[in-house]
Structure formats: structure tokens, C-alpha cells
Amino acid sequence: MSANRSNSVSSARPAAGALGLAHYLGLALLCLLLFAPGITTLPPTDRDEARFVQATKQMVESGDYVDIRFQDEPRYKKPAGIYWLQSAAVAISGQGADAPVAVYRTVSILGATLAVLATAWLGAWMFGTTAGLIAAVSLAGLLILGFEARIAKTDATLLATGLVAQAMLARIYLGHRAGTPVPGWAPWLFWAAQGAAILIKGPVIPFLSLLTAGFLLAFDRDRAWLTKMRALPGAALMLLVAAPWLALITYKSGAAFWQEAVGRDLLGKIGSGQESHGFPPGYYVLVYSLTMWPFGLAAIDAGLRVLNGMRADPRLLFLAAWYLPYWLIIELVPTKLPHYMLPAFPALVLALGWALGDPAARDAPLRRWQSWLRWATAFGLVVVTVALAAIAIGITPYVLGSFSWWGGLAAIIVVVTGWLGSGFRPPLAALPRTLAAALGAGATLALAAIFVLPPLKPVWLSPEIARLFAEHRPCPQGRLVSTGYYEPSLIFLVGTNTLLTDPATAAETLAENPACTLALVRGDLTQAFFAALPAGQASVAVRGTVSGINYSKGSPLVLTLYGMAE
Description:
The chain has helices at 2-11, 21-35, 48-62, 81-93, 101-127, 129-141, 143-148, 155-178, 185-201, 204-219, 231-253, 256-271, 283-286, 288-291, 296-309, 314-332, 345-357, 359-363, 368-400, 405-422, 430-452, 461-472, 488-494, 503-512, 526-532; strands spanning 69-70, 73-74, 479-483, 499-501, 517-522, 540-550, 555-564. It is an alpha/beta fold.
């Protein structure tokens, strides 16, 4: 029994593949190529990104880096970590509060890049150099990460902290199972990453690591590795990273932060679907082929082989522990968004790297139900690929009534990329094919973010309103009052003093300070606005109009800019 166990452990020993400086530099350059195009041309997206960047902008304007606010309202849904990082990017840019949204987005690019590099390191250590590169390139090419890397929110940065934490957990567990010394820095880096993750988005990553460890304990009787986690001093380090701001915001806000962040945001998402994002269990299965595009089919194939081999190989058990419990739990949480699964996706791309780099894994048979699941995923890949291609071709004619050759090119790239990522009758070896698919996915997003989406001006109303307001700004400290158009991006683009309000208040504010105020009024609210003006309709004059589409409802939208008549 002892000899058999020894042989099993030996055969599952981490490969300890080495990646050189050239590998990491090449991957960083790849990430820059995949993630950066479009961050300067894509307008601020509503509504989450716009709220994040506006709250950071107000930190820079006010110099208060503890209290998080969106205009006058506290924004306590998330801790301050992402706002500090974005504030640092703004400071480095030298542009201050006038920095464009692209500056804020660099934080997400750096977070996504760090996640890719950490995946490469972990994959090479677990399964060998080629597997590490395949895993890293696959992660970089995922549609969901390419999108999150271009948006100034928390999720790409959270992924980086999660990967560091999970990589250290793997280093400790697998190192122990292989009988190799665990580096002294591994547990400290694990706990520091947990503290950083808490500052970015609360308990998501600690929850992921706790589920991973619990799964390992359930399926592996060897629990001595827990003693190498340095739990008590490590937890103290985690608190040392996260607690100072938590203490400051508690002192400043009283119980308001905890009521909003924990009581309403966290527990609210667990207890019910928030902000129209409630879906039943099975949601992440349905959107899997979209979020894991173009590697969803190849990754599910590898994941099924992980399930079949995890009893004999601690490395595969770790990947299953990383993905399965987290997926099952968040399927039960009523509030669902596609990017909530992102912290678990590295386990799938690591499995993909292992399966493509190990001939024995590729040749192992699947069970009947697994084959059916694989074919269902293949169908999902075809549906998503066709849908993406159709959107690329059709969105410009739908919005503008004209054909876009860029959209046609994007559609062709989508189809080729879907085929390359699927692994069906591969024309290239595993690593070159994975790289080609990742480049195709990056090219698709770049074309969309540079040439397809920005010209759709009827959808991007806030930049047009900001341009019109700047053209007619009545004084240097001019203020815009908007009624009927309430997008957060308008505040970021026009100014923190922008007021989103009702027709009566808009009329009153314009009348009180006619020399420095302009009012933006939605068409159906015009009569109510006129009726609230002290001197009636004759007291105002039209400065311009903006026409477009209400993207949330698909209905036409006409907005008119008014100033006091001279």
C-alpha cells in the first residue's frame, strides 16, 4: 500500500517547468496587444464603469482617499482598493481630474496581465513549460477577460489577486503532496493576496480559497499541508493589509459602510437578485460558451478529463477543487452576472494546458454522459460564434442604416477564431493554434472597440452631450442640469457638479443661475419643464439637440439643450 501510494504521488509530482524572462516579456507584450487597443476610443460605458471612474475622479478632486462618493452619495458597495489604484494611475498620468477614461482603464489592463503571468508560472510549475504557456495564452484570449481588461472596474484586478492566492495555495498543497519543501514566502504571499483581494472586492477571493481548501479536505485524507499555511500569523498579515482602511471608513461613516457593503450589497445578492440580475441555477451553464469563447469546447473537454483523473493525481484534484465548488455555490446565488465566474476560469485554462500538453490525457476516453456534454458544448460554441459574427455584421446597419466593412472583417475573424479555439481538426500544433485563436479573439475585440462601436453615436449619447455642452458652456464653471437622461457617464464627462433631476428642479436651477447653467431635457418632459419655468417657455432658448437610442429599451430618444434667452 505504501509503495503504491508513493508511485502515485511520484507520477503526479508537479512538473516544475521553468519559464525564462523572455517568456514573461513575450506574454506581457501579448497582453498589451490583446487588451490595450480600443481603451482610448471606447467611450465610458454605463453604468458600473462610469460610477467607478467618477468616484475615483472625486477622490482626486477632493483629496479624500478614505470616503468613497458618487457626487454627494456614499458609494460603499466595494472597498477602496480599486479607487486607490485608479487614483495612482491618474497621478502618474499627470492629468489630474481631467484624465480621460483610458487612464483609469490601465489598472484593469495591468491586473489582467498579472493574472496571465501568474497563470503561466503556475501552469509551468504544475504541468511543464508548454502547458503553462498554453494556459496563459488561453486566459489572455478569453472573451470575458478581453472585455474586463478594457473596462475600469474591479474584476480584472480581482482576478490577479485571486490567481496569486490560488497559485500559492497550489504551491503549498502540491509541494507537500510531492514531498518537496514549501518555500517560506508562499504562505505569506497567499495571505497578502487575500488582504489585497478584500480591499478590491471584499470576501470573494477568500471565499474561493476556502471552498478550494474544503474540497481538498473532503477528497484527500492527507491534511498535514494545512500546518504549512501559517494560518494565525498569515491571517494577521491579511488583516494588516485590509484592516486600516476598514477601520478608517468605519470611523468616518459609522455603520453606513457595513450596512451598504455587507447588509445590502453582499447579503442582498445572496438573498435575492439585485438590479434585475436575478437568474435561476443553470445560468452559468447557459452563458459558458460565451464567457469562455473561443476556448470553451477545448476547456470543457479538458475539464472532463480532470474529473476522471483527479482521484489519482493531486494536481488535477486541485483544479477540480478550484472550479467545482465555486461554480456550484454561485449558481445558487440569485444575483448573477457573467463575470462572476471569472475567478474560477484559470482552473479550466490550466486543465486545457495539461490536456493539450499530455498525450495520455488527450487519448483518455470519456464516459457517455461526458461525450454528450462535450457535444452540447460544441453546439454552444457554434451558436455563440454565429451570434458574434451576426452582431459584428448587423449592429452598424441596425443603428446607422449603413454597412461597415470593419464589422464584416470582424465577423470573418470571429468564425476563424471559433474554429481555431475549438480544437476541431486543428491545422496547427497546440501552442501555435492557441496563440492564433487568442490573437483572433483580441483582433475581434480591437475592431469592435476601435472601428465598430465608437461610430455608433446614437448609442453613445453622453459624449455627444458633453461635446454640445462644451460648445455652449456659458461660463468656465458652467453647470449642466439633466432631466430624463440619468447616465453616470454624463457626470464623468461633463463634470461632478452635473445635476440629474426632475423637470421642476431643472427649471428652478436654470432660473436661479442663468449665467452659468444649461438644462438638458428629454422630449417627453419638455412641457413639464416649460411649465416649471418662472417666466415660461419664452424665457429659454434652444442651444442644440442630441438624438439617439435608449440602449436599455431600444426606443428613440431626443434630448434638447436649453439656456436662458438673451
